[in-house]
Every structure is written in C-alpha cells, then in structure tokens.
Amino acid sequence: MKIKALVAATGMLALLGACDTMSEYGGKVSDSMSEFGSTVKSAFSSDQAADQKYVVYFKSNSTALTETSESTLSQALSAIQQDKVGKARVVAYTDSRGSPRYNQQLSMRRAESIKQKLSTAGVGSVEVAGAGEAQDSDAATGENARRAEIYLMK
To answer: What is the pLDDT along the chain (154 residues), one digit of tens a residue?
Structure first.
C-alpha cells in the first residue's frame, strides 16, 4: 500500500515539476525540483530501515561509475549474494551542471543502471528514484553530487 502511495506521489510531483518547467510566468523550476528530491529522499528513508548502505559515484554527465565506485558496487553485489538481500532502493543524484529537467532525467538513468546490476545479482525488488540535482550544501558540487545511494534490505 505504501509503495502505491509513493509511486502516485512521485508521479504527481514529477508532473507538477514538468508543468512548472514550462511556465510562462517565470516560476522557479529549481523550487519544484528541490521539493521533488526532498520528497523522494524522505519517503524512501521513512519506509524501512536499510541493513546496509553503499554510495557509488559517477563520471561527469554519465551513467558510468568511477573506478573506485566499480569496486564499491562489487562489494555491494557480493553482500547481496552472501546476505540473501531481497529488496533494495537506489536514489541517484547529479551535480548542478545542466538544466533541472536534464538533471532529473540523468539521475533517473543513473538509478536505472544501478537497478539493472542489482537485479542481475539477484535482488528481487529494486525501487529507484532520480532525485535530480543534489541539494546538500556539502555535496552539491563535483563527484560528491554525482552519486547513487544504494540501500539493501533483507
């Protein structure tokens, strides 16, 4: 039931964000995208506590992982097989370069690329969210912003 509500809320927020993007009245696109990212993050973190968390980083303007993050993802995939992880959540972010709409799409592509790898490793259920541009002041630029947070649950 919570998943249906989350999917509905995410869809509505994305739709509202897109409408704001096309506004003729000069409304701020970044406001709606920030709200969307915050809503996704809080909805995911409040549902079920993760047993393990991994953070991987992406190359600029890409779904390709950095070399160090390839190793981190391998550790996560090993944990999945050893601990029989049944569920995962992936929330992906971008840096501040590009338009909010582009960043939203890129973050979703990043989340989907990680989802595919987790599914191949045997995770039965993987929820994804592309949160767009990172809003954390300490992670809003550079590699720290170009990340995906992977939450594994048994």
So the answer is: 444 444 444 444 444 444 443 323 233 334 444 444 444 444 444 455 668 899 999 999 999 999 999 999 999 988 888 877 788 899 999 988 888 899 999 999 999 999 999 888 888 888 887 777 666 544 556 778 899 999 988 7
121-146: b (≥16 Cβ within 10 Å) or e: bebeebbbbbbbbbbeeebeeeeebb
Tell me the whole-structure pTM to 2 decimals. Answer: 0.65
Parse the chain into domains and list their residue ranges: 2-153
CATH topology of domain 2-153: 60s Ribosomal Protein L30; Chain: A; (3.30.1330)
Identify the CA nearest to 127 among candidates 50, 36, 38, 12: 50
What is the CB neighbour count within 10 angstroms for residue 60? 12
Residue 75 CB neighbour total at 10 angstroms: 12
Encoded tokens for 46? 């409040």
| DSSP assignment string, 49-64 | --SEEEEEEB-TTSSP
